[in-house]
Amino acid sequence: CYSFVLLNNYGCSCINNRSHSLTNDTLNFLSTLNQTLTCFEKYQLGNHTELCKSCKKMYGDVNKLYGRMEKNDTMCIDLEDAMNMTRRLWSKNFNCSLPRDETVPVLAVSSFMLFLPVIFYLSSFLHSEQKKRKLIHRE
Q1: What ranges do the domains of the chain cover?
Q2: For 23-68, how does the pLDDT look when each residue is reduced to its tens digit (9 = 90+)?
Q3: Which DSSP string corresponds to the chain?
Q4: Dist. CA 31–CA 23, nearest whole Å
Q5: How far, in Å, CA of 98 to CA of 4, rounded?
Q6: What is the dihedral of CA 51, 55, 60, 61, to 10 degrees?
Q7: What distance in Å separates the CA atoms of residue 112 and residue 92, rounded to the nearest whole number?
Q8: Which sign does the torsion angle of CA 12, 24, 4, 54 carry?
Q9: 15 DSSP β-pair partners
Q10: What pLDDT was estimated at residue 7?
Q11: What is the radius of gyration, based on Cα positions, of the chain?
């Protein structure tokens, strides 16, 4: 269970000011985080490849939820710390990774740029007038 540090100077957004209870976003994050950590515990002694495959969706969900909370400014230091620990486990301890969304566009643009000179010189060669060589014959 997590103990929350109230940092009034930093505007802790994990706790509802009126009821002094955890916000719905915080409860949802903690639930998703606990499911992810439970998955890690289940597969940590076996093959880490199996852990990466089995826990990928849960880890992705907690990552997306964290990103959304970060954008909405509903984050506090305890949740940041928990997510840092989870990311460290995922990447360093278990050597897992998530495919990045921007990989495909980057590869497409890079491939296009790579072949652009080839296309340029080929089209230049095909569209230019070729000078025919005249052979001078000896008489």
Answers
A1: 8-93
A2: 888 999 999 999 999 999 999 887 889 999 999 999 999 999 999 9
A3: -------GGGT--SB-TTT-SB-HHHHHHHHHHHHHHHHHHHHTTS-HHHHHHHHHHHHHHHHHHHHHHHHTT---HHHHHHHHHHHHIIIIIS------TTHHHHHHHHHHHHHHHHHHHHHHHHHSPPPPPPPPPP-
A4: 12
A5: 29
A6: -160
A7: 34
A8: negative
A9: 22
A10: 43
A11: 28
Compute how many other C-beta atoms are within 10 angstroms of the C-beta atom of residue 74: 16
CA dist 67 → 8, 11, 57, 89, 137 (Å): 22, 18, 15, 18, 79
pTM of the model: 0.65
